[in-house]
Amino acid sequence: MIGGLWKRSKLPVVDLPGLRPTPDRVRETLFNWLGQELSGWRCLDAFSGTGALGFEAASRGAAEVILLERDRHLARNLQQIQSRLSAQAVRVECADALGWMRSAAPGAFDLVFLDPPFDANLFELALQAARPLLTPGGFVYLEADRAFDAAALAPLGFELWRSAKAGNVHYHLLRLAPR
C-alpha cells in the first residue's frame, strides 16, 4: 500500500488470467484526488481481485470497507490479508458484485470502487448497480479499458469529476449528476 496505516505493506498477487492490480501510481493519484484521509467513510470494492483499492481505503481510515470477489481462491486470499493486517474495518464476501450491489441498501456508501474484468464489458452495468448505493456527495471510481466522457456518463446518471490514463488503463472519479 502507498499510504496510511499500512504504508509500504505489500499485497500478494495471485497469478490468474485477467487479474490486474491497480498500479501504485494510479492509486496515489486517486487518493490525492480524494484526499489522503478517509476517516468515517464507508467503501465498497465491488470487483476486488487483489483488494488493493479496498485495503488502501481501510489503511487511510475508512470506517467500513466491503470487498466483493466471486472467485473463491481470491476471496480466501483477501481474507488471509485481512487477518494478517488485523484490518477490523474490512469485510470480505465471496459474491457476484452485480447481484450483491443490486440487493444492497441504497445510500450506504461514500465510495464505490469499480474495476471489473475488462473483457467482461460490465462497465455500464456496474455503474447502474452502483448508482443507488451512493450517499449524497459520494464517489464512484471506475477503471476501464477506454475513456468514459460526459456524453457516455450522463445517461447513467454520473458526471466526470476527474480522469487520467496510465498505460492501457483509463481511470475515472465520478459523482452523481445533479437531477
Brief summary of the model shown:
This protein has helices at residues 24-34, 52-59, 72-85, 97-103, 123-130, 150-153; strands at residues 42-45, 64-68, 90-93, 109-114, 134-144, 158-166, 169-176. The chain has 179 residues and is an alpha/beta fold. Helix 5 links the parallel strand 4 and strand 5 (134-144).
Describe this structure in words.
The chain is of the alpha/beta class. It has helices at 24-34, 52-59, 72-85, 97-103, 123-130, 150-153, and strands spanning 42-45, 64-68, 90-93, 109-114, 134-144, 158-166, 169-176. The protein has a seven-stranded mixed sheet with strand order 3-2-1-4-5-7-6, with helices on both faces. Helix 4 (97-103) runs parallel beside helix 5. It starts with 23 loop residues before the first helix and ends with a strand.
Principal-axes geometry comes out as globular
> What is Rg?
15 Å
**What percent strand?**
25-35%
Question: Which H/E pattern describes the elements?
Answer: HEHEHEHEHEHEE
**Residue ranges: pLDDT <50 for 5 or more in a row?**
none
Strand arrangement in the largest pleated sheet: 3-2-1-4-5-7-6
Work out the helicity level. Answer: 25-40%
Distance between the termini: 37 Å
Q: What's the total number of strands? A: 7
Oligomer: single chain
* Number of alpha- plus pi-helical segments: 6
Largest sheet: 7 strands, mixed
User: Structural class, please?
Assistant: alpha/beta
How confident is the prediction overall: mean pLDDT?
Answer: 89
